[in-house]
Design brief:
alpha/beta, binds manganese (II) ion, Aminopeptidase, Alpha-Beta Plaits, binds (2S)-amino(hydroxy)ethanoic acid, 5-stranded antiparallel beta sheet
């Protein structure tokens, strides 16, 4: 075992997860730590304190990504980078995202504890708003960093209470102040993100490490169906413009459009808002989201191009508008990084398997800029985006060992 890997401290890493899980902790054991919330600011303060205690450089960029940098002997060399996200779903788990940030931080500490100096700096990034549950789209921090989304446009996005991201970011930075840098430094030597699998394959295969080969592509849309509010008791059905009735017909039509006998297409309606939401008023407006995923870009393009026509054909007497929120192509990770992760897992004697990621991750926006890859560790029954999400201290530490061994090798290239 490499010196750094042997200095990964399972108890310290687990305790950091326990400390973080208190920030936004929920009654069933999960967390609600949405982007730029008070809980997110508290998480930024907590890891900032740990970083400062270790003498790491802490700084933020214009979209709220947080960077923790361990100096290299050639400190101007392009850094080797790791990280993930600290924000969660509204009823999220204790490991989604935060594991990648804490495993990255543990890697820095293990390098310190082993007295290892690397040529390149090693840097952890906590990407802002990966989940996209409060401010859409998700993976926003990494998307703006990469140029895939425009900074100004994202700063103007509002949440469902009408809070504009620019203001929420200013509030967060006031509560968790950090040195700010202008612009986005995309000069990464390599990037490896550690994450729980969020699926059942590692557990079913009795594997400790997932050597991630890529990430499937995804598209997300919002649809607004406009009808006419009316009295539930006096308005005959034949004259109604019932937005709910039309929205249900559209969802059914989209289900047919997305149907895939091989069950590879992942189609989800996750948010469905019926307004005004009064029991005795015919709904005049329905807003809902659709999210679909597939590993083949051509399938995504075909399905996406048909959405508006399917919606308009099913809308009945109402009207419908369709807005594409995000479109992320499938990611294929650099074979050199995939091989390195597998080699380090084997060297550590950890059972591992190559696998694609069904979930989206910030790595999809980093991969076009530098050789990138991911390391998965199991989560119980593959449950995620659920308060019951669970992982074991030993699996989390095993992933961190593979991570630090991989980062050290890359940082001395
Ligand atoms: O939606 C996703 O795939 C990510 O887990 N937020
Ligand atoms: Mn995640
Ligand atoms: Mn997630």
């Amino acid at each position: 075992m490499s010196d750094a890997a042997s200095r990964i401290d399972e108890t310290r890493l687990w305790q950091r997860h326990v400390d973080m899980a208190k920030l936004g902790g929920l009654s069933k054991g999960g967390v609600n730590r949405q982007a730029l919330s008070a809980e997110d600011a508290a998480a930024r303060r907590l890891i900032g304190g740990w970083a400062q205690a270790r003498g790491y450089d802490l700084f933020g960029d214009p979209i709220g990504n947080l960077y923790i940098r361990r100096a290299g002997t050639e400190n101007d060399a392009a850094p080797v980078v790791t990280g993930s996200h600290m924000d969660s779903q509204p009823t999220g788990g204790k490991y989604d995202g935060i594991y990648g940030v804490l495993a990255g931080f543990e890697a820095l500490e293990a390098l310190d504890d082993a007295g290892i100096r690397t040529r390149r700096p090693v840097q952890v990034v906590a990407w802002m708003n990966e989940e996209g549950s409060r401010f859409q789209p998700g993976a926003m921090g990494s998307s703006v960093w990469s140029g895939h989304d425009d900074l100004g446009k994202m700063l103007a996005v509002a949440d469902r209470e009408g809070v504009v991201l620019r203001d929420a970011l200013a509030k967060t930075l006031a509560e968790a102040p950090v040195r700010q840098v202008d612009g986005f430094d995309r000069n990464f030597h390599a990037y490896i993100e550690a994450h729980i699998e969020q699926g059942p394959r590692l557990e079913a295969g009795a594997k400790t490490i997932g050597v991630v080969t890529g990430i499937q592509g995804s598209q997300r849309y919002t649809l607004d169906i406009i009808g006419e509010e009316a009295h539930a008791g006096t308005t005959p059905l034949r004259v109604r413009k019932d937005a709910l009735k039309s929205a249900v017909a559209i969802v059914a039509a989209l289900e047919r459009h997305m149907h895939d006998p091989a069950d590879v297409v992942r189609f989800t309606v996750g948010r469905f808002e019926c307004r005004p939401g009064s029991p005795n008023t015919v709904p005049g407006h329905v807003h809902f989201t659709i999210d679909f995923r597939h590993p083949d870009a051509a399938v995504l393009a075909r399905l996406g191009s048909g959405i508006e026509a399917v919606a308009k054909a099913a809308v009945g007497p109402c009207s419908v508008t369709v807005e594409r929120i995000t479109d992320v192509a499938p990611t294929v990770f650099d074979p050199r990084i995939v091989d390195l992760v597998r080699e380090k897992a084997n060297a550590l004697g950890l059972p591992n398997m190559d696998m694609p990621s069904g979930a989206g991750h910030d790595a999809m926006h980093v991969a076009p800029f530098c050789p990138s890859g991911m390391i998965f560790v199991p989560c119980e029954r593959g449950i995620s985006h659920n308060e019951a999400e669970a992982a074991t201290p030993s699996d989390l530490a095993a992933g961190a060992r593979v991570l630090v061994a991989s980062l050290e090798a890359l940082a001395n290239e």
